[in-house]
Backbone:
């Protein structure tokens, strides 16, 4: 009685001891005793006998359980006891890994890493099935748990004696090319032996061309592998060997390796005969859940019926008749091998080509679209399925099977008996020779997720069956237990094809049954005394977890345990752990036969047991660092960074194997190099269906020696497996091409990285071991991304700690950095059909921002090592440019000017009215009833109008109140705190009438006093205002209780309410003594957060109005519409000054009214037929966003914009081309002329430098190289070239304005098309700063700069903006060639990073393009890190998708590593009234932790 995995039979135990043990078992299983109590009592009972039990670990007797998801039947183990190290003398992978990982982590004391912060609401992540039953579909979970068996038998650290010769071989072998050693294997095939306790690591005889017949697709249902390479777990096209008939066109090699062409057709005939005449006992062909049996005769008759039906009965009008050679899809569930086999052989008999695929469960299965593409490219129009399966498929409303996304239209045929027609007696399938014809197509998913069909010919199919029969020693009536998917890969080759050829019994255990009862396959082996079993590492692992408490299980009948994924790095630990436990139950070590396969080469190699002539098995413990450079090095000193591999036996009978370089010409590898394994055999697949180009590369490779001579006249097939050939011509596989990630020059295998991550404690952190590793290309190199599912109960701290430990472990063991590590909630990664993770789909979701992780850690700083060196600033250079005439350094000096003012105007009026108050009085006298202003509200009704005489009288009343009530003297400063409207204009002229200096201030926002009121208070204080003029409502607000909380209300100066001032005249209107007298102060806060007021004299004010009047052709008969804030800059000048000066009528549209009615401004323009209109970017954006879809509605309401000659955006920044262009396109339908929209440019020192105006050439656009701009250079490129940035000119330079471009450091003049600071000289420049609140020293020379050489007399004002002038081919009004000014950005806002100058708007544009959920973005620097703040327009759980995409975009386009990504709600980024981002305010909010972010990711 073998209990608890101990071979107790070996020792005669007294009967009473056995009874006591049995009772103990019972108590434990019924929960009457704790695990601890059970172990104590059991140890006591066995104490006297323990020494007698040979070869078994005492600890194993006490505890053979492996930690991991155990089925409910077994009570959970309390803890894992360490096994003594003498258990076996070979280390297996997981131990090495776990030790290595622990050691690696010990090296790093817990380094302090900034933890990402997350808003609480995000933590309650809705994990779809937070408490789902363990769906072991995760392939990777196996892996996860696979790591655990590792603990079971930790091996001694000393290496085996036989390592020495292997080392010598490595050192000598590296020089010899192994092409020399090419041995063809004997007929016996010498299969390799099972993983016996310890074989010396195999030596690198890397090139033996070992005889091999066929490579099977590496199926890694373990999510892991799958994961890594999509191809691992690719849904392979099920291969079917049918009854290939006819003479094979290619010479087949039979067992003896003798080419025999004549015997093929007879062999096929024999196969058909086998099917026709069942022998005496009806063989049980399959075991299914419902115990349905398929007899040989039944298989023949049903396949025949199906063949007849397919060929003769599908002739309805709408269904095409099938012709021999047509492709047919086979859609069968994993639980119905009988119907699948019938369908497969039925197609072969009818000479149709079966294409087995997975059952599509939903319309959007992972990879389903690619399968549809494959079906379409194969021309599949018919799908065969079972009645039950057809009922379960998603249906359309008509009741038909729904059309799946990307699939061709299919006719579904149910093949259950009642739907088929019996053929007439005289009908026989034609059995002509079809050697080279395609027998079936197996699907394969590549690393990128694309699906191709691998075509297998009849000849190959037969050769594969013969080779497997010989290699595995199959004989008639043997029983095979198959756990694999019988539709493809090894499951198909062994379980459906070779088994029929050899008339074997097959017991098929479906995946669903394995999930429910992981021991089911072992129970079937016992019940049917199966001689062979076909499993994966995962199945062995699951049965280990479930085997406690199972009695009477014996595996002594097995002579072959074929491990289909024996080539995976974790299979060695599964095999060892499984043997460790089941050796006590009759499993012999030599029975375990790992094999390697690939879709292209079918079975590549399989280990043969000694009785079939196999050499003893071998292992190698290889240096991970050596492998990453593509060479085999035994790990001598560094015991941690290693990969333990087992051989997968010798090549198949009749095959030659060689190892070639992965890239470029297929040169043979040297014996100590790792390369791609290639197979030459008659039993490989023949092509990728319909893809001739890549077929040639893969299926017709000609390996060559170092000298370039082909090693064989027959082509080889590339297997996609990486490995080498060791001693005894054993094949060793170290990875797959699909999982290969080339980082820098080193190669890493995704599987190995998964294995390392799984060895990190706590192992249970990863939900079922589900980890995907893949690489994404960022900045011309592969970057490793690791995605894991975390357990539903994991805390934030757990996950962050686990992530940082994984990073350290991978860094230490593989010496490679992980670019991004993401954790997703349990059960959310896309699954492959039979469990496992669908890696290519996971990668696709990652790149599209659809992965929805709940934690992300990015390490671009350590991974990205290929950034160009930071730019070194040159030492101070003097002004060395040569000036000759007006050339500098051989280029025309970059200087331009608007029209001359002097002879443009009848100067009598200009001289007569030097001051604006005089102009207003003159207009009130000469045209008293002329309408100057109309103010609109949100409904479009005119709330107030003002004529010249009304404005004059209101101004007089304000002036009288200021002098009498407030007792102000001439020159006093007065703050005007008004909402946008006519009262503001009247108060402004009232101040001028009494000689006071007005300061316009935006009123505080009633709903947001705490942030807006302090700004008002600050401007009033800084401007030294003696009085505040305002309305009654605002007066109440300034003195309210709420205001008291924000500011000290007692400190306000006199507050005058102008709503009820008496009607009084001033005795005399103040006339300024000189033109340079201060007229008003213009206060504003810059985007960098500096509050400054500039002084505008009366002369400058008049000059400004005159220039605008001339540029825009403003006369009393004109109407213009203004939708701007009237508090500073050009907005103030247009709202308050220009109408009075030029006499035109202004339709005033306050921007706040657009919140209630977005179409108000456009309606006003249309209603009043305004030829000229002004707006801000924020207004334009409101219209584009809010009205883009409503142009038809607006047209019905009568909005017509064809009257507009010019629509100017008032801005102090680089023109936003994308916005202006989309605005033009959107409202083209309403008649807006294509050329109407343009921009203006002004700044602190001069509010209007450029204005498009109504005449002159259209604005031009140039494309510059963004990389050159970073170096302060202008390089013009063609539209659409890489890194091109469109710049449009900022309007025409105003009359009287001169502009020059000066070097930012030397202050010398620059040439045409050179980037420098824009300097301006004009009569309407401000005369200086009244005050700069914050940084007085920086601004001393802004208004009085002079060039360091050239024209050193002219006084210029510095704008603080970078730009360049470029002479165009266009001519302006004077007939001269037109000079265009292009503004690039503000010097204050520019970021100095890596020695280069970046403009925030460029980085922000890249970020906004990165994902559709990015609503807005702002960047700034903090210490020397780049911080990106992103507004998320979507669900909070999608927030973390943005972190990697933002980092990638900035890295790719700007060569910058993002330091911090902050994800916030919409509306958090502060934007001023002009639509400019207040990045410094945002920075202050970030540093003060006031942003309430959804997530903050610190990229390490």
Residues:
């Amino acid at each position: 009685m073998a209990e608890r995995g101990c071979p107790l039979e070996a020792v005669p135990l007294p009967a009473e001891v056995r009874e006591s043990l049995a009772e103990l078992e019972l108590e434990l299983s019924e929960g009457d005793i704790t695990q601890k109590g059970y172990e104590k009592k059991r140890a006591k009972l066995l104490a006297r006998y323990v020494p007698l039990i040979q070869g078994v670990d005492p600890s194993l007797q006490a505890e053979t359980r492996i930690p991991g998801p155990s089925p409910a039947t077994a009570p959970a183990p309390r803890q894992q006891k360490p096994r003594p190290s003498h258990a076996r003398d070979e280390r297996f992978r997981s131990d090495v890994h776990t030790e290595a990982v622990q050691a690696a982590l010990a090296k790093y004391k817990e380094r302090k890493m900034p933890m990402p912060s997350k808003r609480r609401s995000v933590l309650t992540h809705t994990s779809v099935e937070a408490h789902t039953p363990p769906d072991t579909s995760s392939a990777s979970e196996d892996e996860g748990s696979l790591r655990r068996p590792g603990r079971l038998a930790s091996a001694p650290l000393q290496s085996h004696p036989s390592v020495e010769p292997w080392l010598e071989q490595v050192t000598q072998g590296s020089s010899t090319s192994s092409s020399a050693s090419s041995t063809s294997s004997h007929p016996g095939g010498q299969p390799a032996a099972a993983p016996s306790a310890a074989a010396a690591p195999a030596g690198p005889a890397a090139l033996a061309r070992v005889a091999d017949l066929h490579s099977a697709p590496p199926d890694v249902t373990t999510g892991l592998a799958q994961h890594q390479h999509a191809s691992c777990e690719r849904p392979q096209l099920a291969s079917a060997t049918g009854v290939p008939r006819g003479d094979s066109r290619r010479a087949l090699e039979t067992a003896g390796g003798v080419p025999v062409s004549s015997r093929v057709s007879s062999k096929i005939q024999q196969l058909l005969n086998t099917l026709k005449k069942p022998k005496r006992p009806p063989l049980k062909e399959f075991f299914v859940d419902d115990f349905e049996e398929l007899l040989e005769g039944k298989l023949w008759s049903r396949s025949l019926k199906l063949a007849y039906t397919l060929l003769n009965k599908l002739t309805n009008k709408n269904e095409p008749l099938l012709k021999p050679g047509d492709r047919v899809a086979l859609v069968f569930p994993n639980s119905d091998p009988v119907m699948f086999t019938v369908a497969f052989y039925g197609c072969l008999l009818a000479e149709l080509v079966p294409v087995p695929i997975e059952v599509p469960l939903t319309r959007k299965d992972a990879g389903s679209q690619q399968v549809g593409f494959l079906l379409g490219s194969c021309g599949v129009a018919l799908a065969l399925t079972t009645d039950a399966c057809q009922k379960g498929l998603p249906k359309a409303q008509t009741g038909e099977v729904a059309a799946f996304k990307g699939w061709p239209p299919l006719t579904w045929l149910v093949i259950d008996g009642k739907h088929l027609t019996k053929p007439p007696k005289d009908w026989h399938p034609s059995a002509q020779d079809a050697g080279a014809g395609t027998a079936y197509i197996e699907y394969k998913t590549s690393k990128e997720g694309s699906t191709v069909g691998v075509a297998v010919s009849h000849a190959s199919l037969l050769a594969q069956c013969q080779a497997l029969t010989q290699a595995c020693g199959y004989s008639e009536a043997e029983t095979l237990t198959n756990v694999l998917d019988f539709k493809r890969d090894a499951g198909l080759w062994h379980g459906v094809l070779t088994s029929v050829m050899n008339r074997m019994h097959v017991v098929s255990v479906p995946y669903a049954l394995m999930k429910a009862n992981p021991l089911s396959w072992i129970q079937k082996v016992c019940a049917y005394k199966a001689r062979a079993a076909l499993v994966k590492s995962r199945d062995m692992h699951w049965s280990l977890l479930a085997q406690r408490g199972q009695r009477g299980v014996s595996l002594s009948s097995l002579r072959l345990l074929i491990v289909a994924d024996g080539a995976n790095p974790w299979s060695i630990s599964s095999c060892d752990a499984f043997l460790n436990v089941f050796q006590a139950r009759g499993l012999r070590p030599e029975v375990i036969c790992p094999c390697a396969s690939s879709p292209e080469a079918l079975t590549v190699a399989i280990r043969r047991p000694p009785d079939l002539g196999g050499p003893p098995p071998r292992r190698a413990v290889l240096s991970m660092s050596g492998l990453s450079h593509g060479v085999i090095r035994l790990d001598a000193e560094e015991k941690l960074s290693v990969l333990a591999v087992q051989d997968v036996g010798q090549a198949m009978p009749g095959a030659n194997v060689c190892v070639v370089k992965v890239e470029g010409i297929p040169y043979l590898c040297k014996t100590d190099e790792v390369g791609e394994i290639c197979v030459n055999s008659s039993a490989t697949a023949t092509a990728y269906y319909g893809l001739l180009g890549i077929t040639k590369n893969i299926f017709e490779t000609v390996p060559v020696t170092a000298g370039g001579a082909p090693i064989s006249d027959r082509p080889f097939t590339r297997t996609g497996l990486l490995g080498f050939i060791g001693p005894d011509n054993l094949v060793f596989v170290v990875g797959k091409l699909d999982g290969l990630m080339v980082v820098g020059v080193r190669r890493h295998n995704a599987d190995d990285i998964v294995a390392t991550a799984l060895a990190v404690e706590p192992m249970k952190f990863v939900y079922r071991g589900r980890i995907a590793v893949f690489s994404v290309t960022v900045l011309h190199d592969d970057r490793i991304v690791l995605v894991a599912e975390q357990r539903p109960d994991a805390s934030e701290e757990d996950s962050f700690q686990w992530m940082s430990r994984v990073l350290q472990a991978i860094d230490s063991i593989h010496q490679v950095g992980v670019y991004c590590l993401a954790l997703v909630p349990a059960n959310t990664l896309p699954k492959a059909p039979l469990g496992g993770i669908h890696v290519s789909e996971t990668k696709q979701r990652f790149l599209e921002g659809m992965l929805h992780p709940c934690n992300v850690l990015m390490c671009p700083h350590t991974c990205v090592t290929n950034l160009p060196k930071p730019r070194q600033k040159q030492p101070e250079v003097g002004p060395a440019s040569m000036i000759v005439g007006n050339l500098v350094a051989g280029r025309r000096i970059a200087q331009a000017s608007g029209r001359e003012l002097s002879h443009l105007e009848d100067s009598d009026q200009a001289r007569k009215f030097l001051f604006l108050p005089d102009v207003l009085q003159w207009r009130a006298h000469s045209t008293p009833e002329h309408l100057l202003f109309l103010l609109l509200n949100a409904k479009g009704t005119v709330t107030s109008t003002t004529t010249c005489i009304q404005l004059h009288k209101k101004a007089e009343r304000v002036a009288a109140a200021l002098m009498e009530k407030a007792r102000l003297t001439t020159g006093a400063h007065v703050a005007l705190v008004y909402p946008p409207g006519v009262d503001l204009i009247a108060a402004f002229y009232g101040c001028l009438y009494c000689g006071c200096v007005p300061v316009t201030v935006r009123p505080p926002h009633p709903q947001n006093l705490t942030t807006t009121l302090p700004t008002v208070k600050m401007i009033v204080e800084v401007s030294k205002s003696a009085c505040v003029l305002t309305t009654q409502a605002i007066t109440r607000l300034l003195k309210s209780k709420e205001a008291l909380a924000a500011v000290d209300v007692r400190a306000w100066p006199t507050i005058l309410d102008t709503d009820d001032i008496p009607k009084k005249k001033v005795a005399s209107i103040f006339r300024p003594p000189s033109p340079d007298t201060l007229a008003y102060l213009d206060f504003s806060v810059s985007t960098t957060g500096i509050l400054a007021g500039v002084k505008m004299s009366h002369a400058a004010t008049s000059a400004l109005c005159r220039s605008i009047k001339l540029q825009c052709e403003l006369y009393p008969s004109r109407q213009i519409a203004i939708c701007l804030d009237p508090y500073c800059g050009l907005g103030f000048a247009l709202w308050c000054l220009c109408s009075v000066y030029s006499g035109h009528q202004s339709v005033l549209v306050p921007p706040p009214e657009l919140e209630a009615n977005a179409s108000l401004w456009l309606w006003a323009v249309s209603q009043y037929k305004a030829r000229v209109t002004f707006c801000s970017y924020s207004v334009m954006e409101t219209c584009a966003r809010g009205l883009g879809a409503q142009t038809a509605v607006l047209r019905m309401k009568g909005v017509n914009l064809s009257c507009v000659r010019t629509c100017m955006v008032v801005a102090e920044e680089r023109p936003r081309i994308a916005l202006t262009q989309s605005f033009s396109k959107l409202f083209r339908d309403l008649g807006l002329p294509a050329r109407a929209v343009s921009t203006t440019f002004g700044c602190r020192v001069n509010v209007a430098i450029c204005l498009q105006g109504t005449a002159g050439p259209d604005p031009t656009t140039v494309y510059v190289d963004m990389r050159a701009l970073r170096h302060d250079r202008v390089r013009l490129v063609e539209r659409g070239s890489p890194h091109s940035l469109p710049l449009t000119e900022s309007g025409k330079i105003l009359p009287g304005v001169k502009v020059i471009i000066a070097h930012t450091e030397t202050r010398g003049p620059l040439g045409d098309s050179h980037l420098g600071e824009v300097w301006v000289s004009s009569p309407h420049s401000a005369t200086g700063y009244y005050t700069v609140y914050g940084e007085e020293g920086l601004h001393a020379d802004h208004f009085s700069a002079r060039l360091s050489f050239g024209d050193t007399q002219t006084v210029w004002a510095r704008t603080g903006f970078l730009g360049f002038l470029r002479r165009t081919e266009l001519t302006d009004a004077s007939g001269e060639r037109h000079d265009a000014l292009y503004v690039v950005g503000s010097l204050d806002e520019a970021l100095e990073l890596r020695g280069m100058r970046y403009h925030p708007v460029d980085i922000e544009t890249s970020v906004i393009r990165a994902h559709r959920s990015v609503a807005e973005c702002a960047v700034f620097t903090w210490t020397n890190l780049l911080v990106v703040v992103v507004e998320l327009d979507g669900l909070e759980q999608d927030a973390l998708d943005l972190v990697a995409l933002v980092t990638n975009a900035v890295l790719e386009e700007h060569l910058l590593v993002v330091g911090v990504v902050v994800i916030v709600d919409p509306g958090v980024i502060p934007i001023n009234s002009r639509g400019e981002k207040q990045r410094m305010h945002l920075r202050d909010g970030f540093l003060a932790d006031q942003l309430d972010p959804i997530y903050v990711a610190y990229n390490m």
